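Re: the multi-chain job from yesterday

Posting the exact lines I submitted so nobody has to dig through the queue logs.
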Amino acid sequence: MNKIVQCVPNFSEGRDLEKVEQIVECLKSKDGFKLVSYEPDADYNRTVVTLLGDPIKIIDAVTEFTGKVLELIDMNFQSGEHPRMGAVDVIPFIPIENVSMEECVEYANTIAQKINEQYHIPIFLYAEAAKQKSRVKLPAIRKGEFEGMKDKIKEEKWYPDYGVNEMHPTFGVIGIGARIPLIAYNIDLGTTDTKITNNIAKAIRFSSGGFRHVQAGPVYLDGRGHTQVTMNILDYKKNPIYRILETVKMEAKRYDINVTSCELVGLMPKGALLNSLSYYCRVNGIEYNKEMSFDEMTKLAIKYIGFRDFDSLKIIEANI
Amino acid sequence: MNKIVQCVPNFSEGRDLEKVEQIVECLKSKDGFKLVSYEPDADYNRTVVTLLGDPIKIIDAVTEFTGKVLELIDMNFQSGEHPRMGAVDVIPFIPIENVSMEECVEYANTIAQKINEQYHIPIFLYAEAAKQKSRVKLPAIRKGEFEGMKDKIKEEKWYPDYGVNEMHPTFGVIGIGARIPLIAYNIDLGTTDTKITNNIAKAIRFSSGGFRHVQAGPVYLDGRGHTQVTMNILDYKKNPIYRILETVKMEAKRYDINVTSCELVGLMPKGALLNSLSYYCRVNGIEYNKEMSFDEMTKLAIKYIGFRDFDSLKIIEANI
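And the result, structure tokens for all chains:
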């Protein structure tokens, strides 16, 4: 059975679209994996790339891609709203099929060693790949950003995991990690009141006492004329979508507000969708078949979870 | 306006009921506060005392009570299932009316100084009264218990907050603290299946990814013939009862199980009940009057939250 990982390199250019094209070129039409998407953001001055496929092929291609970025981006002349410490800022590996988290940690180490040997760029390992507790959370590593890294890396506490304690002068450093998939999920509310929306967000988000793996906040969508609870679900197994959605409905009730629909930003793993569909099938008295097709899943997701702008390619595995 | 605190001293005798009576005698029919209850537990070999009233009067009486305990309990001959580090093990102060948490921290310091001066018992301050982060959680202080404290207190890290670094040879040490009220809350399920009950408990408890301030587990009640999700709510403002109850109902649905009733162990503050009643009034289209009487609250609590064995004296403020 083929091993499938998701790999989501982020690089520090999102304005010069010609340069973005030159960089992602080496990830297109390759054997063994798919370039699912790349999304340049001008405000952030950053591009998020999503790859899906064979981990070994991805390691080779992302190493090549890093060389291209090294050639084209000089961090001494880069600025944007998103914090960053390198021209390629992060490379996370995410297990999808027939791959364990331990293997993803190995892939992180393999590519870290390759990149460091070829380009002399120092590497920090983060998330599940972290070798020190203080490096589990990326923001702790990235604090001080490119500009501060020159000195930070000299502190014994911040010696890199691969390479010498000398920042690359034009590239900076990279964070390479392994983690489970994040789900970027938004719930639409039939109101324009962001204060109420914030109260509802507080009920579910960890920082206000809510679910342990949920980060959430209110946002008003000018174009659509209503608010959303926008969130990241950091562990969809422990905090499944249906439980968050039903809790939001429970809270909305006290304000006499309806949940009108919801949306997924980016992709989600099949497992995240199925564990919510099994709930809704059960409580609606419908037979749940975990072998159902992607089209069937999509139909049920729209009907019972209320996803808008949803199609089967939103499910990671449907892209394979 | 009168200041009202709850104070819940725990002492290390729950078997010799004559001794228990001798000890609590000095807390009975006193001016300015009420002895709400004392509950000796033979397995634990421990008695939990609940006092309610004027903080200054309580400080004086609990100091006297500590002297009585010193006279009657020798920890060198005490054992039981509950961990303990002193003959009086803990003295928490809980703000109820017209009292801030800061004031409760002051009361903790006042009684700590008094007890230490009069009886030479070393005191550790915990929870909101802790002066060091490592002392916020009581179990960290209590680790090693009475038997281990003789050596532990000699370590610089574990010098007491009041007194010298020498354990009292027969009494041990006391943890004195300030905290918000805990709510001990159980939800009855119409099943005998503890595995399902455990799955439901996991959905709400922090340690499995659930609500931040909830500790929960499954228990089978032999006498009643059904299971319960039994829990402590450590912060009822951030994790209100209604939200936990509705989440348990949501989860129970997928197993086709009903929530049959629920119960409160000990007391709860009026505010904890009112924030849930305001939810149920709202979603049931009933007018919510926050000035309602204790009897009215009790009626609504039984009707909408489903409390069994409930009366108005379960509300802390109704005892004042």
